[in-house]
Each structure stands twice: as structure tokens, then as C-alpha cells.
Write a structure and sequence with these properties.
By secondary structure, the protein is an alpha/beta fold. The chain is 36% helix and 7% strand. The chain has two domains: 10-80 and 163-258, Uracil-DNA Glycosylase, subunit E; 107-155, no CATH class. It has eleven helices and four strands.
Amino acid sequence: MNVSSGNLPKQITDCIQLAHPSWHPAICNGLQAMYAADPDYFANLCSAEFLPTEGRLFAAFQQPVSNVRYVLIGEGPYPRADSATGVCFMDGAVDNLWAEDGSGLSKKVNRATSLRNFIKMLLVASGHLDDEYTGGEAMAVVAMSVMHNQTTFIRKLADLQENMNRQGFLLLNATLVFRDSMAPAKDGKAWQPFLQAIFSCLSEQQSAVSLPSLVLWGKIAEQLKRIPEAAHFPQILAEHPYNLSFIKNREMQDFFRPMQLLHNCTKENFC
């Protein structure tokens, strides 16, 4: 699809090519809705540095619209260039999930607070952790079992993202950008017309009985409930994973438990 750069910076429209073609019309509609709401927004955005870099603004949209079963919406990109990937809570600085010495999660996972707490929540949900004991000693027990091949757990962040893709997740943020000069909540408000277009696309592509569920993490994402189109979708709300309380969230545990996201999915071991 050719994307006209008539009233939008080429720096923004070039990013659309990274998205699956089935998303191109909705992304264009969303961008035009943002421009109509604030004609200066994109010019101001492109006048300084913002994250994610490398044209990854729409990197979350890499699977077809028809594959989406869940729309998980966090707050915004990680505030570090090597971490912000355009995909919700997938930290680009992380490769290995586990420390090589079996002491627990890797240092880079521990630095990515949202990712760390999400993994711990999954371990509590699967019964590998007690939600009262999720610190270093408990994590070391899990990590050693992984290192000694006593579990079928994945070892790479890319495998976690692939497992979530298999489950039909669209991993978005309430604001697709991070910049030092703007509070995420304010950018989140500016991106609401864009997300409205995404919701419209999903509701048009799928029947009412198979609409994807919205999984809203944190107060900025919760504001999306005000979008009229959001009312058509099943919704589940939780605090943002950078809160330690997320690890003990029973609703999140129950929601994710059947998906077995930490398990290595092979032909012999379907997830």
C-alpha cells in the first residue's frame, strides 16, 4: 500500500511498511485522525528525538489482523533506546531470560521491571513460585532447573514473544512513543484517535462472537475504556506490571495460566 506523506512527516509514514499489509489502512486512518485532532503533533514529535528508533514505531503490527485474539495494551515504550522495540514490554536489550550461572533471571531481565514481574507472575500461575517467595533464592531454584534441562521452559525473550504471537496477542502501548519532553499520559491522550482506528478495524474484521479481548495494563491504558469502540470488546484490567502487586494478581494468573507462555512450544509439545 502506498502511503501518502501529504500532511504527515515521511519519518512517520515510512514506519508503516514494517507492519503487516492488513494493518496499513487502519494505521493510516489512525494517523490521519491524530492529525485532524492536532495538526502540529507529528511535526513537534519529529522535531526532536523519540523512541522507538530504527523505524519500529509500528513494529507491534507484524501479524495479520485476522490472527489477533487479544490486544494487550501497556503504558509506553521503555525509556531506553536499546530497549524500546515498538512491542509492549519486549525489551530489545534482553536476549537470555535466565542468568548463565543459574542464579535467577538475567541481569537485563531484572533491569526491565515490567518484563521481570510478568515472568514472575507466569511462574506463580504455573505453580513454580509461591507468590510470597519470589525473590533471589526462589528464582535460583527455578533457574537451576532450566539450566539443567529439568523443565521445558524457554530461554530467550524472542521465544516468549513468539509464544505470545502464537496465542494471537497484539502487544501495543497506550502511547507508541517515548520522549523526555513529554509525560507518557499526555502522549497517551494524543494517540487515542489512533487506537480508536485500530479498535474499529478489529471490530470490522471479526464477528461479535469472536472479538478479541482487551487486556489493559495501568491507568494510562485504562483511559482507553472511554473510546466508544472499546465498549464492544471483552475487557480485563490490571495494574501495570512495573508494580510488584502484579505478580500476585489472581485475575492475571488465571488469564495467562492456560497459555503456558514460558514453555518451549514444539511439534511434540503444543502450547
